[in-house]
Write a structure and sequence with these properties.
Blueprint lengths: L2 H12 L9 E4 L9 E8 L4 E7 L7 E5 L5 E5 L3 E6 L9 E6 L2 E8 L4 E5 L2 E4 L5 E4 L3 E6 L7 E6 L3 H11 L4 H8 L8 H7 L5
Parallel strand pairs: 1-11
Antiparallel strand pairs: 2-3, 2-6, 4-5, 6-7, 7-8, 8-9, 9-12, 10-11, 12-13
Length: 203
């Protein structure tokens, strides 16, 4: 199945609550928490799905173990997973999507019509209020345009905003108006909600 079709189906199932930026926090501060299992929906590359519970993968997890409703454990290679939707049972309306890209797990930061931004670091945790925290010494953000299999680094926490701004100006050079706003500091280079929404490449 076409990956673009799979992604569209995934986002349609999750709903707009997923994309609310206030529901995802990126921090370089360590978060003390109990490792637990979360409700998940795994979508495979062929479009089929598996529902159950699993521990959230960290950045380098190679296999994900999902326990289904019959208490059967399914050990799945990360590379066979198109996406993993997860949420805290105490906040079932706030769902998050993780993708295994370039041998690391990355969380959906924001998405627009022409641009998707994923964040990648050491660990992921969903609190009782539904907010996902991404933690690590460095947190990297990668941009993906339609058809791009490999992400482009466009910034990170633990780096300077100047480096993020330069990366964005190069990556989004096909939208001069947006680049001008970023260069003039009208838009923060880590404001991916605005960047994804406003990015409109020239035809």
């Amino acid at each position: 199945m076409n990956k673009k079709v799979i992604l569209s189906a995934i986002l349609g199932c999750v709903g707009v609550a997923l994309l609310a930026s206030c529901q995802l926090v990126t921090t370089v501060v360590d978060v003390s928490r109990e490792v637990k299992k979360y409700p998940v929906i795994v979508t495979f590359e062929d479009g089929s799905t598996l529902t159950g519970e699993a521990k959230l993968p960290n950045g380098a997890t190679k296999k994900v173990t999902v326990t289904d409703s019959l208490d059967v454990k399914h050990k799945i290679k990360s590379e066979d997973i198109a996406s993993l939707i997860a949420w805290n049972e105490n906040a079932p309306d706030v769902k998050h999507v993780l993708f295994y890209r370039e041998k690391t797990w990355r969380a959906l930061e924001d998405m627009g019509e022409h641009l998707m931004v994923l964040s990648q670091s050491d660990d992921y945790y969903i609190a009782k209020n539904g907010v996902m925290t991404i933690k690590g010494q460095y947190i990297n953000f990668y941009g993906y345009r339609p058809g791009e299999e490999k992400g482009t680094w466009i910034g990170g926490r633990g780096y300077t905003k100047g480096s993020a701004r330069r990366a964005l100006l190069k990556y989004l050079a096909d939208d001069p108006d947006l680049c001008e706003r970023i260069e003039n500091k009208e838009i923060d280079p880590l404001d991916y909600e605005t960047i994804c929404s406003d990015y409109s490449p020239e035809k």
